[in-house]
């Protein structure tokens, strides 16, 4: 029980860490548009070296933000699914072993 | 930490690819060896890989007004050692380069060096050091995964600064500019990654005792 509530506290802290930037007034969080850092790094390059042209382009790009978010959701869901399966499998197996130990006549 | 496709000059792209390749090959051998020696830990290795897929797909807002993602590398580096995570991290980066246009094939070497080589070795080093100095499993796991995450983003900043030195400030000036983009944003995200890794590690320690003993992971505390 102690460990389980510890997990809840950890999860709550993560939710707070994500929620606080979103809840702050935009002026306090650099305009608050929450663009990706990958794109911002490209901005820095373009400002320092306006002559630099990327010499290779992605073979395929998601055609829209919706398709991109679909693919990210699939990646996250697949990862979360396997994490949950592995944790649940180990937990159920441990429970079964404990039950068997209790029921075996001595 | 994704350097976008084509955004490293060709010689840098080639250099990082050459630097990363031997690590990836060694990692593939390490994964095979690990699985042959510890067949019952397969599901746990799957979990470590899935954790990287999950966390690197989560783009989280940060207090700087930018979004970025954790890496999930620390968990597997702690459980299986840093070598094993290079292959798993590189696979995730390849997936994102091909299907999500995040990162790229020409920048795969540099990105793998940051996330799949420096990240796991830093996490593993911090973990060993932290355990050696007497810190608990939870504290060591937190520090290792959070600092491993930060190390990845600092490496990306250095890679970019080497390719694009600042016209005024040179290489150090460019490091400052790129860490300004990546590292500061990453601090709260690294904390999130640390907390999530501890959350999963607690479950693993409770319910995967046999596998952990087989991997000699719990030998120093059991």
Mean of pLDDT of chain B = 96
Oligomer: heterodimer
Name of the CATH first level of chain B? Mainly Alpha
The chain-level structural class of chain A is mainly alpha
Strand content of chain A: under 5%
The level of helicity of chain A is 55-70%
Question: What is the CA–CA distance across the termini of chain A?
Answer: 29 Å
Spatial order of the strands forming the largest sheet of chain B: 1-2
Name the beta content range of chain B: under 5%
Shape of chain A: elongated
Per CATH, which architecture of chain B?
Answer: Orthogonal Bundle
Ranges of chain B where pLDDT stays below 50 over 5 or more residues in a row are none
Number of domains of chain A: 2
Note the run of SSEs of chain B as H and E: HHEEHHHHHH
Q: How many separate structural domains of chain B?
A: 1
Largest sheet features of chain A: none
Explain what the structure shows.
The complex is a heterodimer of chains A (106) and B (222). With 106 residues, chain A is mainly α. Chain A has helices at 2-23, 37-48, 65-103; one strand spanning 35-36. Chain A folds into two domains: 1-57, no CATH class; 62-106. The radius of gyration of chain A is 23 Å and the shape is elongated. The mean pLDDT of chain A is 91. Chain A starts with a helix and ends with a helix. In chain B, a hairpin with a 4-residue loop joins strand 1 (60-61) and strand 2. Chain B has a single domain (10-214), classed as Orthogonal Bundle (Arp2/3 complex 21 kDa subunit ARPC3), CATH 1.10.1760.20. Chain B has a two-stranded antiparallel ribbon with strand order 1-2. Chain B is globular and about 55 Å long. The longest helix of chain B is centred in the C-terminal third of the chain and has 38 residues, at 170-207. In chain B, helix 3 (73-80) packs across helix 6 (137-163). Helices cover 75% and strands 2% of the residues of chain B. Chain B is mainly alpha-helical and 222 residues long. Classes of the chains: A mainly alpha (106), B mainly alpha (222). The interface between A and B is large, with 61 and 74 residues.
């Amino acid at each position: 029980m102690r460990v389980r509530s510890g997990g809840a506290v950890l999860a709550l802290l993560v939710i707070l860490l994500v929620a606080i930037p979103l809840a702050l007034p935009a002026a306090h969080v650099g305009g608050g548009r929450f663009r990706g850092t990958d794109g911002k790094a490209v901005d820095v390059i373009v400002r320092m070296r306006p002559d630099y042209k990327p010499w290779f382009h992605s073979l395929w790009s998601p055609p829209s933000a919706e398709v991109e978010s679909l693919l990210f959701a699939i990646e996250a869901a697949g990862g979360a699914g396997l994490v949950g399966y592995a944790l649940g499998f180990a937990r159920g197996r441990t429970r079964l072993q404990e039950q068997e130990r209790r029921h075996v006549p001595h | 930490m994704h350097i976008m496709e084509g955004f490293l000059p060709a010689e840098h792209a080639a250099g990082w690819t050459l630097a990363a390749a031997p690590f990836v090959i060694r990692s593939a051998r390490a994964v095979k060896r690990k699985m042959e020696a510890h067949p019952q830990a397969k599901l746990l290795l799957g979990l470590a890989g899935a954790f990287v897929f999950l966390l690197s797909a989560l783009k989280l807002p940060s207090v700087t007004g930018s979004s970025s993602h954790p890496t999930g590398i620390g968990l597997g580096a702690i459980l299986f050692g840093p070598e094993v995570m290079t292959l798993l991290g590189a696979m995730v980066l390849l997936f994102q380069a091909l299907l999500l246009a995040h990162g790229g094939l020409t920048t795969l070497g540099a990105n793998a060096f940051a996330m799949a080589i420096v990240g796991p070795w830093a996490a593993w080093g911090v973990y060993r050091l932290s355990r050696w100095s007497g810190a608990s499993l939870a504290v060591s796991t937190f520090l290792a995964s959070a600092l491993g995450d930060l190390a990845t983003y600092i490496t990306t900043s250095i890679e970019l600064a080497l390719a694009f030195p600042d016209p005024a400030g040179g290489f150090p000036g460019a490091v400052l500019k790129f860490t300004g983009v990546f590292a500061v944003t990453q601090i709260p995200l690294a904390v999130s990654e640390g907390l999530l890794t501890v959350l999963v590690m607690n479950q693993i320690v409770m319910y995967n005792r046999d596998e952990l003993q087989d991997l000699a992971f719990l030998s120093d505390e059991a």
